[in-house]
């Protein structure tokens, strides 16, 4: 058979024609002439599987064995990267003879190509089966398939095919797109996929895009600039637009890459306080991350994207206005994010001497290289304990059980959900299965080697991880899920019994946790007096069950031997008993003993660990925390603060480790200083309280900085939790306490212009309290009321602030007690003031309703007393103030007790659980002679009696300065042409009316007024479910059909769009009409269909039985047909109706 040698010439750069993948799959590559051992299915790599010999292509390549060896597309000069000379070994030449199909791609500027054909047999001939058959091929846009027929002398023929694809001049697409620096695109690049995301580390400040085009005549631009320019990234999301234009300039295509930086983990301090106010997230009180606003919110609400998702996870309502969120409610604030990224900030480690200022977007890269970053290697202590001999951990070969356990732990961590994701896994593939297998392997190893301390320790760590897997990620086995359902049912039954007991003892409604415990205690004493010991024992069981739910930390959990933490502590103690000289065993045992409340025992273990590892930051942190809870002082306050601060700084430094470091451990639940560990964050709260009370070294952090870091870390920890269990509740307590401390600090700064910031923080903290998963308790309600009072003092004519205060006061009126009645009266006054101020300016005299409330009177009196003392101090400067005398006394440590938030030395802490808070005069700070008022008087009339000049004005006039009263509204500082200060107007809202209606329903003589308010709410906000439900409940007792009319006014969406809240209303209509036997009522049929479509036919079973008993077959047929979206005459339905005897 004849063979063919072929080369192709074109008037453009040369291309190598490659065999098609189908033909390549039949070859085995062979280098340097030797036999290849590669399988037949391996593809050829023309750049590596063949040796290079020269720097230019040969003009012709001959073939042997009647076959083409290669095809060369040659035109002009070849770029150096394309100069790939190839020599084919003999054996490979024989193998490649089977290749008859080749492909090539040429640019749009190529018009023709020339084929140079040469056969190995001079008697053979070849024919070009394309176009006119000439060697010069005219190329068209797209695929040009050229076939060559080779005919030998004996008539044998062989066909060769060349598929040349010519790019269209109007085509506009990329052949490849990469991000310099090894950042990956998601999804992988494809020329027909135009939207990508690219996650990068938070210290990445800029990137460079590398777009590649198949045709060099195509033009590319990145953000309307050249591709060689770097792109400066925002602190959150940066949208990069890559535009490719076709060779003829007629068409273009846009590729979008959304580059997302990780959230900067620590709170930043902006150089300008105005930036600090504008860019502060209401949830974390740190800088906004991927800021989004709520569509048409007034005033405009901007939050970080992860936190607004967290707040709306359970209920799709605006957390500030409580309005339902419609479609497209989330609006990305790109311009705000860009301004924030360019705003100057201070270094995280400014307290350690760093004076650099940089753009917010650059702080991550700076902190990574900052020379002031704290080192993980701490300096030795000035006073060292006697060092002990280091223990041997039993260095033996790793047992197979331990190896298997470690593999299962790796698989467990691999399959844990990402932050904010929902746990979804197939049966038998839950991460908990791997964790359980690890515990089984360790337990088996302990059985084999019971005296190996390390095995006990590893088993303890695995058991502790079980706690976080259950409470943080919601992982449970199916049997445990069934048991959990049973437990929830039992819990619901117990709660109903507790509420019934509360009603018997004068606590109606839903009392706070404290009142529920009080009612149980009263019932227990009554039963003991009556000699009913069996019932008394059951009531005591209810009391203990409820007590475990009331804590802010895990102390009660650790004490429960059935809990994973309790079992982990037992294993840590087992390990310590076998090897008492191990710092690691002493640390773990001391940490959990401290969490259990056994601080004295914990301190012994921690001091032992500190003697063995005096420079370990974790040991120092927990040792300082344990010292803080001792009655006798064994360490100075300065050393305690140093220990705890070193632990916090260690965590801060770990956020900026190099990229090749192991995965950041501060997010790992197994880390002792993990930011999802509420015990660690509570210790940091103690540090902030100490820093507020005692002066310290120059490198000490400020209390505000610590509180900001805690609030930011706690918010991130909550957003990472999948399950709303005990871990989330503990982190929520930390977040609320840090928020409250920062609010008090802001108030005490007593600076002009702080009122809008105070109002903003008060509203944010109130929203967090309302949306938290913490069960209502006295401490939480006291905090809510105190925060709302602070907001009213800052803006006494703000309708929204007064409405929030009324809601907080209404929550306090849960019992028919003197305090409850006072709270109810105050709530009515606050709601009435909020309604009266609608449409008026937010400045001026406080409303009359405030002067009728006890707490406001106490505030005014406290401000007056403070001014008198201030004037006395100015006239007698040599006389020491009573505050100095009191502060000179020894007040002890400020470690927060369990269930109580940390408070600074000059802050107004919320009332404790067992105390009442009727006014500011009853606070401990007032008793010590410290600042009593909630806020310094800033606006006209704030903190003064009606008709008198404000104290601030009097002081300013005496000093000869002109007093210019500032507004207390959220929008201040705007002026008209005449220089008059313009302030915001109070908007009309349904919320104060709804709150007032709820308050009026508590008394029998105001029911009618409450009904009128409910109707007004329905007219103002027809989409609010609560107004219909509560009004209908009021009317149901006297006129059930009137309740149906109220429900019928609700604007239901089409059935396919109805929610479970909508189904509740339709279900109530069905329930009332069926109970009243109003089978012909026009609202029964449509509501039966709507309720059945949303909830299912099973929810209508009892109603169907009742209708069958009344022979309402026509109605039943119509209901079934409507739910199934079929006609009554449908054949299948007709058969079903016959079976049911309905026709």
TrEMBL record:
Coiled coil location: 510-537
Biased composition annotated in UniProt, kind: Polar residues: 875-884, 904-925
Organism: Anabarilius grahami
Region listing for Disordered, in residue ranges: 868-973
GO molecular function: ubiquitin protein ligase activity
Assigned keywords, A-Z: Coiled coil
Name the UniProt record assigns to this protein: Cadherin-like beta-sandwich-like domain-containing protein
GO terms (BP aspect): protein polyubiquitination; ubiquitin-dependent protein catabolic process
Gene3D superfamilies listed in its UniProt record: Tetratricopeptide repeat domain, Zinc/RING finger domain, C3HC4 (zinc finger)
Annotated Pfam families: Cadherin-like
Domain Cadherin-like beta-sandwich-like residues, every copy: 97-166, 174-262
């Amino acid at each position: 058979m004849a063979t063919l040698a072929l080369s192709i010439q074109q008037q453009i750069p040369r291309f190598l024609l490659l065999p098609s993948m189908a033909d390549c799959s039949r070859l085995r590559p062979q280098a340097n002439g030797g036999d290849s051992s590669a399988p037949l299915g391996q593809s050829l790599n023309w750049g590596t599987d063949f040796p290079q010999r020269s720097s230019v292509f040969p003009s012709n390549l001959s073939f042997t064995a009647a076959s083409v060896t290669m095809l060369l597309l040659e035109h002009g000069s070849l770029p150096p990267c394309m100069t790939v000379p190839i020599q084919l070994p003999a054996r490979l030449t024989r193998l490649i003879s089977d290749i008859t199909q080749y492909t090539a791609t040429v640019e749009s500027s190529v018009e023709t190509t020339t084929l140079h054909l040469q056969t190995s047999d001079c008697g053979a001939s070849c024919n070009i089966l394309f176009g006119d058959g000439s060697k010069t091929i005219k190329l068209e846009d797209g695929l040009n398939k050229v076939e060559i027929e080779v005919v030998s002398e004996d008539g044998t023929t062989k066909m060769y095919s060349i598929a040349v694809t010519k790019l269209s001049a109007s085509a506009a697409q990329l052949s490849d797109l990469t991000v310099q620096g090894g950042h990956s695109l998601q999804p992988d690049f494809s020329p027909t996929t135009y939207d990508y995301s690219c996650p990068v580390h938070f210290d990445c400040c800029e990137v460079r895009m590398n777009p590649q085009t198949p045709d060099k005549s195509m033009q590319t631009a990145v953000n309307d600039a050249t591709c060689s320019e770097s792109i400066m990234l925002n602190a959150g999301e940066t949208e990069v637009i890559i535009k490719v234009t076709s060779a003829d300039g007629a068409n273009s295509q846009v590729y979008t890459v959304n580059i997302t930086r990780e959230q900067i983990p620590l709170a930043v301090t902006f150089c300008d306080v105005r930036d600090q106010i504008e860019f502060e997230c209401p949830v974390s009180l740190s800088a906004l991350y991927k800021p989004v606003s709520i569509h048409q919110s007034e005033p405009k609400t901007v939050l970080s994207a992860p936190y607004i998702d967290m707040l709306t996870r359970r209920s799709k309502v605006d957390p500030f206005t409580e309005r339902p969120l419609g479609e497209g409610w989330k609006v990305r604030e790109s311009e705000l994010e860009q301004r924030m990224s360019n705003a100057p900030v201070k270094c995280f480690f400014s307290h350690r001497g760093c004076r650099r200022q940089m753009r917010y977007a650059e702080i991550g890269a700076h902190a990574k290289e900052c020379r002031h970053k704290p080192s993980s290697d701490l300096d030795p202590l000035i006073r060292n304990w006697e060092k002990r001999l280091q223990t041997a951990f039993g260095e033996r070969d790793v047992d197979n059980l331990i190896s298997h356990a470690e593999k299962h732990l790796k698989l467990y961590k691999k399959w844990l959900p990402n932050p904010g994701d929902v746990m979804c896994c197939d049966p038998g593939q839950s991460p908990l299965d791997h964790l359980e297998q690890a515990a089984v392997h360790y337990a088996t190893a302990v059985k084999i080697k019971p005296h190996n301390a390390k095995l006990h320790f590893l088993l303890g760590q695995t058991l502790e991880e079980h706690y976080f897997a259950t409470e943080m990620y919601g992982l449970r086995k199916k049997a445990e899920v069934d048991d959990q359902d049973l437990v929830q049912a039992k819990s619901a039954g117990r709660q109903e019994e507790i509420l019934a007991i509360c009603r018997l003892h004068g606590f109606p409604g839903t009392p706070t946790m404290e009142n529920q415990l009080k009612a149980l205690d009263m019932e227990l004493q009554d039963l003991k007096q009556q000699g009913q010991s069996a019932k008394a024992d059951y009531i005591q069981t209810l009391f203990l069950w409820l007590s475990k739910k009331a804590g802010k930390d895990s102390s009660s959990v650790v004490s429960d031997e059935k809990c994973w933490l309790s079992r982990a502590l037992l294993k840590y103690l087992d390990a310590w008993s076998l090897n008492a000289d191990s710092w690691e065993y002493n640390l773990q045992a001391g940490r959990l003993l401290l969490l259990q409340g056994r601080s004295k025992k914990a301190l012994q273990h921690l001091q032992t660990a500190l003697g063995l590892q005096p420079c370990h930051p974790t040991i120092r942190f927990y040792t300082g925390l344990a010292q803080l809870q001792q009655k006798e002082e064994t360490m100075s306050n300065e050393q305690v603060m140093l220990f705890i601060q070193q632990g916090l700084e260690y965590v801060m430094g770990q956020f900026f480790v190099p990229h090749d470091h192991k995965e950041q451990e501060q997010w790992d639940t197994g880390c002792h200083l993990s930011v999802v560990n509420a015990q660690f964050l509570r210790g940091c709260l103690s540090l902030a309280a100490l820093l507020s009370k005692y002066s310290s070294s120059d490198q000490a952090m400020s209390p505000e900085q610590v509180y900001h870091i805690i609030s930011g870390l706690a918010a991130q920890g909550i957003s990472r939790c999948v399950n709303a269990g005990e871990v989330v509740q503990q982190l929520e307590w930390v977040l609320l306490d840090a928020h409250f401390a920062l609010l008090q600090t802001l108030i005490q700064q007593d600076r002009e212009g702080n009122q809008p910031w105070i109002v903003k923080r008060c509203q944010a903290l109130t929203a967090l309290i309302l949306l938290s998963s913490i069960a209502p308790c006295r401490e939480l309600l006291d905090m809510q009321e105190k925060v709302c009072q602070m907001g009213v003092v800052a803006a006494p004519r703000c309708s929204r602030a007064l409405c929030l205060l009324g809601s907080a006061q209404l929550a306090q009126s849960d019992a028919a007690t003197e305090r409850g009645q006072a709270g109810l009266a105050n709530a009515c006054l606050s709601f009435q003031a909020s309604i009266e101020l609608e449409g008026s300016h937010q400045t001026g005299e406080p409303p009359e309703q405030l002067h009728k409330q006890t707490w406001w009177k106490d505030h005014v009196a406290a401000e007056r007393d403070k001014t008198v003392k201030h004037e006395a101090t100015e006239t007698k400067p040599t006389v020491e103030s009573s505050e100095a005398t009191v502060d000179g006394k020894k007040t002890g440590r400020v470690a927060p007790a369990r269930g109580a938030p940390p408070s600074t030395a000059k802050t107004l802490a919320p009332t404790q659980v067992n105390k009442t808070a009727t006014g500011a005069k009853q606070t401990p700070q007032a008793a010590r002679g410290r600042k009593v008022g909630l806020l310094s008087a800033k606006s006209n009339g704030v903190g003064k009696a009606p008709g008198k000049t404000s104290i601030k004005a009097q002081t300013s006039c005496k000093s000869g300065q002109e007093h210019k009263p500032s507004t207390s509204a959220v929008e201040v500082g705007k002026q008209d042409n005449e220089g008059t200060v313009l302030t915001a107007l109070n908007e009309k809202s349904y919320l104060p009316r709804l709150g007032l209606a709820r308050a009026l329903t508590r008394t029998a003589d105001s029911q009618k007024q409450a009904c009128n308010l409910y109707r007004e709410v329905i007219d103002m906000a027809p989409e609010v479910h609560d107004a219909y439900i509560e009004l209908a409940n009021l009317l149901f007792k006297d006129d059930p059909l009137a309740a149906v009319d109220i429900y019928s006014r609700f604007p239901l969406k089409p059935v396919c769009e109805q929610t479970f809240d909508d189904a509740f209303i339709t279900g109530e209509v069905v329930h009332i009409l069926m109970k009243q036997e109003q089978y012909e009522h026009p609202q029964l049929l449509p509501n039966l269909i709507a309720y059945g479509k949303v909830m299912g036919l099973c929810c209508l079973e009892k109603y169907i039985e009742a209708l069958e008993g009344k022979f309402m077959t026509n109605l039943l047929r119509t209901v079934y047909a409507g739910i199934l979206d079929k006609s009554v005459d449908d054949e299948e339905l007709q058969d079903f109706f016959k079976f049911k005897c309905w026709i």
